[in-house]
Amino acid sequence: MAHAALLHSPLPSTSAAARRRCGHNNYRVPCRPVSRRRLRPMASSTASQAPAPAPPGLKEGIAGLYDESSGLWESIWGDHMHHGFYDSGEAASMADHRRAQIRMIEEALAFAAVPADDPEKQPKTVVDVGCGIGGSSRYLAKKYGAQCKGITLSPVQAERGNALAAAQGLSDQVSLQVADALEQPFPDGHFDLVWSMESGEHMPDKRKFVNELARVAAPGGTIIIVTWCHRNLEPSETSLKPDEVSLLKRICDAYYLPDWCSPSDYVSIAKSLSLEDIKTADWSENVAPFWPAVIKSALTWKGITSLLTSGWKTIRGAMVMPLMIQGYKKGLIKFTIITCRKPGAA
After folding, report:
1. What is the C-alpha separation between 180 and 249, in angstroms, rounded?
2. What does each C-alpha distance from 79 to 37, 233, 255 come to in angstroms?
3. Measured between alpha carbons, how far is residue 170 from residues 86, 132, 140, 327, 343 in Å?
4. How far is CA 84 from CA 9, 95, 101, 128, in A?
5. pLDDT over 70 for what percent of the chain?
6. Are 260 and 228 a contacting pair, CB within 8 Å?
């Protein structure tokens, strides 16, 4: 979801009472940039080691960023706050991008082999970790007739998502709340499908993140993680190259991201937790048209006026957008899917 923070606008439907509860003044949260730090790629051996502590103010920064950005993102891109999936080399028109976002959901479900035709095997309970305004939650609830819980750090997103669920007649199936993905307010073994669409990049402790996903998954349940990673290290490397570290640092500072990790790090963590059927794929080429489209939308009249009125954080985020494209082209940033399954009951 981090790219949703590029465009900032208040949500017109969010109540003044909610803003007061959340400590907001005109939807603004004074978010301090995360403290400067050396960006370290995780070596695969770190899957069992304690991570570096989260930068001060990280959760508050993430919440404020999405409180501010979600309204304009919704008005331009709709309620799915994630990349679209395209055929490799496809030249997509603006009209294709929302369909591509739905396709991203379907491709992730297919990659994880979530049953599509057998109602008895389809997920009945779903958790959407880093749910945004609940686009995936509502889609999965309608697709499977499932009960869906969503969690986000943003009070504005949770309120807006619940309002959208009510407007679509899904209040009895979809419920969003403010909660930390690293300390989920759900019992062990509860969800048939654990879904994380572009939230892992915000997690300061990747092992604890995956452990929580596994904890709340039901025996035999499916876990789907779609996230931004840096490239895998070569056997001769112990870290990323200095220019790669510098590029990621600039992206991190703009979007409230902690240290990145590689796809192989996620696989190592999943193996260490005894998860099964672990699969991963690099979908970087399949999301290539997305960032140019985001930049194009920011250069519309609505995007430009919002940038000019939203302040330095928004302008800085817009300035960093080309760095994402650069990172993809260099092979540094990898748009990755990781799926696995919790072992079934004995």
Report:
1. 24
2. 33, 35, 20
3. 29, 16, 11, 39, 31
4. 22, 12, 4, 18
5. 70
6. yes
Strands, sheet with 333-341, edge to edge from the N-terminal-most edge strand: 174-178, 147-152, 125-129, 191-197, 217-230, 333-341, 276-282
More confident residue, 278 or 320: 278
Helices (H), 168-278: 206-216, 242-255, 263-272
Contacts of 246 (CB under 8 A, 6+ apart): none
Q: Which of 113, 144, 108, 111 is nearest to 126 (CA)?
A: 144
Q: Position of tokens 């939308």?
A: 297
Whole-prediction pTM value?
A: 0.82
> Position 114: which residue type?
V
CA separation for the pair 177, 195 (Å, rounded):
15
Give me the mean pLDDT over the 22-37 stretch.
34
* CA pair distance 136, 325, nearest whole angstrom: 25
- What DSSP element (H or E) covers 220? strand 217-230
- Cβ(186)–Cβ(150) under 8 Å? no
Q: Phi and psi for 164 in degrees, rounded to 5?
A: -65, -40
Rounded distance between C-alpha atoms, residue 223 and residue 192, angstroms: 9
Q: What is the pLDDT of residues 301-345, one digit of tens each?
A: 666 666 555 555 556 666 788 899 999 999 999 999 999 999 996
pLDDT of residue 49: 52
Q: Retrieve residue 165's tokens.
A: 């669920």
pLDDT in tens, 61-87: 766 666 666 655 555 666 777 888 998
